[in-house]
Amino acid sequence: MKITVRFFALYREIAGKSQIEIELRPGATVGELVEKLRSDFPALPHTALIIAVNTDFAGSDRVLKDGDEVALLPPMSGGQADNVADMISITRDRIDAQAIADRVRKDTHGAVVTFAGVVRNNFSG
Q: Dihedral of the CA atoms 20, 25, 29, 35 (nearest 10)?
């Protein structure tokens, strides 16, 4: 079966491209895909990867289907939550930066930094 893999941020730099198509055996899991990618791209970190399959966060036991799109997202700067999938969401709603900062703030942290930006109207020219 054919899977599209999209690389983001540091992983795009490691792969040297933003996406690839890869052939896997029918019934392969996300874990098997990650093993194959680490074999093909040895510089990929062996720490936890954030994986989304067709825009839904997925664990290593998720079974892939022909035509799936898998995104590899690096953990955010500063570490990783115990269950990072619970800390990330995609929304069309207004984002309350203070509520997000309050959610992640701990007494052991030296700082919590947020960034608000906009999507530019072009890419690569």
A: -60
Listed in sequence order, the DSSP H helices in the chain are 10-15, 30-40, 97-104
pLDDT tens, 45-75? 877 678 999 989 898 999 999 999 999 987 7
Q: Pairing mode, if any, of strands 69-73 and 2-7? A: parallel
Cβ–Cβ < 8 Å for 32, 61 = no
The angle at the Cα of 79, spanning 16 to 96, to the nearest 5 degrees, equals 100
Q: Which DSSP category does 63 fall into? A: B
**What tokens were used for 11?**
């992983």
Q: What is the pLDDT of residues 87-122, one digit of tens each?
A: 677 778 888 888 888 887 888 777 888 888 877 777
**Helical ranges in 56-96 per DSSP H:** none
| Contact call for residues 30 and 51 (beta carbons, < 8 A) | yes
Instruction: Read off the amino acid at residue 115.
Output: F
